[in-house]
Amino acid sequence: MKQPASNKIDFGRQAKAIERVLQLAVRRELSIHKQLGNSIAVWENGEVVIVPPNEITISPLEHSNTKEVPEYLRVLIVRYPHHGEYLFVLDSIRSSIERYQSDNKHNEVIINQCHLGWEVFDSVQFLVGYDHGLSAMAQCRNLFEMVLGAIFLIENPHKLPDFLSHGIIRESSTEQTKVQDCLASRQDIARQSAGDEKWHGQQISKLAIQAGLEDIYESFYKESSSIAHGDPSLTLAKEGKRFQLINDARIRNNYCDAALAFSLVCIASLYKNAVQTLKLTPAKTIELLERQLLNSLIRKTQ
Predict the structure, then answer these.
(1) Tens of pLDDT along 254-265?
(2) Distance separating alpha carbons of residues 188 and 131, to the nearest angstrom
């Protein structure tokens, strides 16, 4: 097995890259203060000077090829100040996982599942950034199930053949009959390996218990499932002893908060298990973050 690349920083050779990161960080913080209407303190001529928000200037980047932070992330960071901190840690871990080199098939699949998990997590961020809380919460259901399956696979390497067999589609031409034969073959494989269920042959509730996420299953997952299935409760609200139709869509905006918190726990739990299995360091960082996010989400259900 190849070892992960060293995390040691060569300040001489990486000076330009470090400078770009610092420029983006400064620009982001200045932008947040300006948009929130907060003053900043700077050091000028040997003394502290307070700069009001309307006088904060954001200088252009010296490197024109530097990618700007997407608009939806800028919105999220302004609306949820702590999200930027969480995202910084998670993105750093994501980069470490994706740089990891291994000849072990199980590890390769873990890395790929982490990549897919981030894609779904990012779609939740996108939806929340543009106030599509209902859709974001429904997407969290997919993310939760994907994460539970990945954690089960991480903890049960012997299930890798079942996982791979479940996804096999034989090479075929684009002719409809061949495609149908191919899909039928895939269904046969799925039935044989998982008893007409998912590749892991487990109920989501059991996977949640095994992953230590049963509280999230009973609350946030069930709520996201009701959204995905178009539950009638989404159109009703209780006023006194009677139920009334919800006509104001803004009532559902609370789902933005719930979806963002739910998705953070999902991706942090996935990364924690992956980092521990791949033996990446420091594992303590993601373990503490996952615990913090999980405890915060559980408190929301109490």
Answers:
(1) 789 999 999 999
(2) 42
